[in-house]
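Might I ask for a little of your time on a matter of protein folding? Here, with my thanks, is the record as I have it:
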Amino acid sequence: MHIGKGRTAAQSFAGRIGYGENPDKTNGGELISAYACDPHTAAAEFAFARSQYERVTGRQEQSDVIAYQVRQSFKPGEVTPEEANKIGYEFATRFLKGRHAFLVCTHVDKAHIHNHIYWNAVTLDGSRKFRDFHRSAQAVRHLSDLICAEHDLSVIENPKRRGRSYNTWLGPDAKPSHRELLRAAIDAALAKKPRDFETLLALLQAEGYTVKQGKDLSFGHGDFKRNIRLNTLGDGYTVAELRAVIGGQREHRPRRRTSVQSSRPQGILSIQKKAHGGQGRGLPPLGHGGEFEADGENEALPGRAWPDLRGPFAPRLRAEGKGEGAVREGQGHAVPACGDQRPQDPHRQLLQDPRRVRRL
């Protein structure tokens, strides 16, 4: 989570954490737990810790990451809201090792119960910040899967490595972008057969668009945050191509939105991190029992069959005294934890490389 454009750090904290603490989603605030902070003042405490970090260290970053969020979802009907909150709290405790204040908000407004886990980027002593490390996404997934296996819950064994953008996931239901709206306005203006390029611009101005003549021709609108250059609309929409269409030298072919013909993806756990002004190294979606998490809230997936998963580490957990019920036959998938006590398995190499964990 980074500071939103035109917003202060305190406003960004309040907006993001306020969404997680929404009483309509958390049973009136009963499904919220916290470590080293008060749920009622967590946003203000996170903002204060950040200001203290800048004062003590003297460090100020251009693209400052202020907090991190993990969304953890569960198979419908398999866990109670209270148990889901405890699992989220256990995950944050073991992953952060008590170095960062965190907040766990369990939402029950969807068919699937899911957690929003927020932690402050600044450590409790105010001397350091949490830093992403190589393959941190896998480490998060492994720890989450292990905890769920210990609680006899389902996990996804082979999640897809990359997800889709929210608009791609919505397909034809997605809200048109500003560029799509501008292309549609140009298509409508061309359909009126303007006699020259200046007449085309006049038709667009009549529809509420403003024209800026500079190095590149650009258009503005009351709904746009910034002007859109004509040469960024794609093939068929450059000045030369539009003049050729008006002059009858070429045929205009409106650009249509590509329809998404594939089904919506299966449930996964995703970790959200927006860094470096949205241009930084993001974390890919992670596998875990639950619903698909895109860039925002999503709907449940009614009627989707959950796979019969078989975990390779089930016998090892039983041998270590986790109990016969620790991993259900055909569903459990245990993976190494990020804490001090973790099973010995081939995946442990992922967490042993000091280059990958030195910042935790």
About this structure: The two ends are 18 Å apart (CA to CA). DSSP finds eleven helices and eight strands in the chain.
